[in-house]
Specification:
Radius of gyration of chain B: 23 Å
Number of helices of chain A: 3
Number of strands of chain A: 4
Number of domains of chain B: 2
Structural class of chain A: alpha+beta
Strand content of chain A: 15-25%
Helix content of chain B: 10-25%
Order of helices and strands of chain B: EHHEEHEHEHEHEEEEEH
Strand content of chain B: 25-35%
Shape of chain A: elongated
Distance between the termini of chain A: 28 Å
Oligomer: heterodimer
Strand order of the largest sheet of chain A: 1-2
Number of helices of chain B: 7
Largest interface: A-B, 65 and 98 residues
Largest sheet of chain B: 8 strands, antiparallel
Shape of chain B: globular
Chain lengths: 93, 301
């Protein structure tokens, strides 16, 4: 998606000023954020939201806890595939 | 390949928490015990003494090691873990005389957290970097350019109702509702975990709702506002814009779309921004939680 036509006046104005940064100093804004309007917000919603190909992992039948999976694995006499992340992999961060 | 396995996705921190972490604080003690058993049986070197146990692993229901890869596995490596795990499982199953039954195809409830409260609102939240000039998907590494993250937020029935208005003039959504949305979800978890904002981090902000269309019992609201968050180490300053459709008869939202776009700066302990302090643009998108809708047999418009 190209973005220049989404630039709103407010975004351009931020270029003229600084941005409050962590150490109390101001850092220049190099890349303005897009402006949002009734016309543009939907395009940015689509841009931010994952594409179908980015959600392939959702097609796997994930149990949300290892113990639930172990219970079923014991019943079915099947192995367990575990995906462990800091921040729940299914987005429960 | 994964369909041969019973699959689990779980929070690494709680599978093997630090020693000072008390058992009472564990959300699922059985999972922790099983994972620690697996870890104890894993070959030396699989876990390199790191405080995290992130990775992809295959095991038996009793915690026997089958295969594993510590940390984020590239696609080929993850595939190899699954293949090795299956090969070892086949031998174990034969030795133990297992008679495997098929894994059901019926989906598992994938609604995060607790079920949405009655009359409440559960939103799916996505966060991603926005273009930096000509660089549509910015980042110095491939995974930076692909990075996005998912989160969710629950609003109670009364909080959800505060987005609804029949008035054509703008009305402010209560400050507490904006603060909840802002401190829990307007955060930079694009590349990794980011803590919620601390109390008081929302320095300024407004969210306004106005009815822009009424068709029978169906109200369409425009949502507009801004938020400026800042605490030691990081900041985010954004505009908010969206639209929501609410059915008064059904007492529920048919559609809820909200976008935040603004400048982030700084970093959090685990969000991989130490070399990308910004300021740089980041977006957050909210829609009705689709898994919740599916589970309730609904569906946003």
């Amino acid at each position: 998606m190209s973005c220049p036509h989404f630039l709103a006046l407010s975004s351009i104005l931020t270029l003229l000023g600084g941005f409050p940064l962590v150490n109390g100093q101001e850092a220049p804004v190099r890349w303005p954020a897009p402006g949002l309007s009734d016309q543009s917000y939907g395009e940015w919603l689509t841009f931010i939201r994952p594409r179908k190909g980015e959600l392939g992992w959702r097609e796997v039948r994930w149990h949300k806890s290892l113990s639930e999976a172990a219970k079923e694995a014991r019943e079915l006499q099947r192995p367990i595939l575990l995906w462990a992340m800091n921040g729940h992999p299914c987005g429960e961060t | 390949m994964a369909t041969r396995f019973v699959c689990a996705a779980d929070e690494a921190f709680f599978l093997d928490p630090p020693r000072h972490f008390q058992d009472d604080w564990l959300p699922n003690r059985e999972s922790t015990l099983l994972f620690r058993k697996f870890k104890g049986k894993a070959p030396a070197g699989l876990f390199p003494g790191s405080p995290t146990v992130q990775g992809v692993y295959c095991m038996t229901a009793e915690g026997d090691f089958l295969s594993g890869y510590f940390a984020a596995a590239p696609r080929d490596r993850a595939r190899r873990v699954i293949e090795e795990g299956w090969a070892r499982w086949s031998r174990v199953a034969e030795e133990r005389g297992y008679r495997s039954r098929p894994v059901p195809k019926v989906p598992i409830d994938s609604v995060p957290g607790q079920p949405a409260p009655a009359g409440g609102l559960k939103l799916e939240v996505v966060v991603r970097d926005l273009p930096r000039g000509e660089e549509t998907h910015p980042g110095s590494e491939e995974w930076h350019r692909r990075a996005f993250n998912l989160n969710w937020i629950d609003f109670t029935a009364s909080e959800a109702r505060s987005f609804v208005t029949t008035e054509r003039s703008q009305r402010q959504v209560p400050a507490g509702v904006l603060e909840k949305l802002a401190t829990k979800t307007l955060k930079d978890s694009v590349r990794g975990q980011c803590g919620d904002w601390k109390k008081g981090a929302l320095k300024e902000g407004e969210l306004e709702t106005e009815c822009i269309d009424k068709e029978g019992e169906r109200l369409t609201m425009r949502l507009t506002g801004f938020a400026r968050l800042e605490q030691r180490g990081r900041a985010y300053d954004c505009r908010l814009h969206g639209k929501a459709v609410y059915d008064q008869r059904q007492g529920r939202f048919l559609r809820f779309e909200l976008v935040a776009a603004g400048q982030r700066s700084g970093s959090d302990e685990f969000n991989f921004r130490a070399k990308d302090l910004g300021p740089a643009p980041m977006g957050v998108a909210y829609i009705l939680h689709q898994a919740t809708d599916r589970a309730e047999g609904k569906g946003s418009e």
